[in-house]
Amino acid sequence: MSEHIVSPKIYAVILLALLVGTLLTVAAALRDFGPWNIVIALAIATFKATLVILFFMHARYVKGRTQLVVISGFFWLAIMLSLTLVDYTTRRPEPSTSQRSVPSAHLFHV
Amino acid sequence: MHRTGDLFGQYQTLEQQKDSATLGMWLFLVTEILFFGGMFLTYTINRRAFPTAFGVGGNMLDLTLGTANTLVLIVSSFTMAMSVWTAQTARKKLVPVFLILTLILGCAFLGIKVIEYKQKFDHHLVPSLNFDISYRVNHPAPGDSPEEIAKEKKEIAEGLAADPDLNAHAQLYFSLYFGMTGLHALHMIVGVGLITWLLVKSLKGRFSATYNTPVEIIGLYWHFVDIVWIFLFPLLYLINRHLG
To answer: Does the distance separating the beta carbons of A85 and B78 come in below 8 Å?
Structure first.
């Protein structure tokens, strides 16, 4: 079989990176970086997830067709997140006073 | 099903068979990405709408237990990957060893979750039940440190000043907390079941260098559940830790 066998050494290195990443994200969360806290947290999480996908899940070693499926999954997720947020982030409060008939409607014009 | 050795009848080669199974599992995981993705999207929209409540709610989660759970799952992904390696390299005796380790870690995660959920129940933080964000500070347990209670009381007071509907919006946060971690825990339970099945088969020596596909693809499922938690952890537990 032409299967690529990943060595335990690589797994151990990835494990170490993941553990370090976890401690780093907790440490960063305890300090005030203002609006960057969430950016740092998500960046570290994305880095950890990428390591798991590429090495533990062997995505780095599979055929192109399977790699395409993996990328598509995240592509569709990106569409769902970005297009929905395009809606919510560009809402402006409506001039009509009838909006106030719903108690917390004014909070949804994010 | 017609089978010659490890090769099932509908496939021409073992490689094609393995490819097919791997592709199938990845396609399923893509649906799972969008399944969880929908909840992450809901979380994002509601967090933008109610940042104060999400910060207050997030600080009520136990950071130690959450971090412990993250580390537990990461190590379990390692032991799962190792079980695949032992099967691929025909170390048949070691396959069940790493599967058992993965099972222990998976159950440890679920046990810690139970402890966390019990805490929420005791603090009246279960939505629709008797939700009251101020319950704990108004009824501290004997074991609670006075500094911690005072800190939380101050945080709730500041939260109420910024958002009079804090209780309602915090209930939203906890709905998402239970919804997302609950769905994740459900996936963990299914994973534990699948790995138990693998364990039984591995003890019978079923997996070899030529046939280890079930270990590989259930491993894919397990790693995916780990990845969901890798994102859940910062979004739920690490929102507001730097303030105070």
So the answer is: no
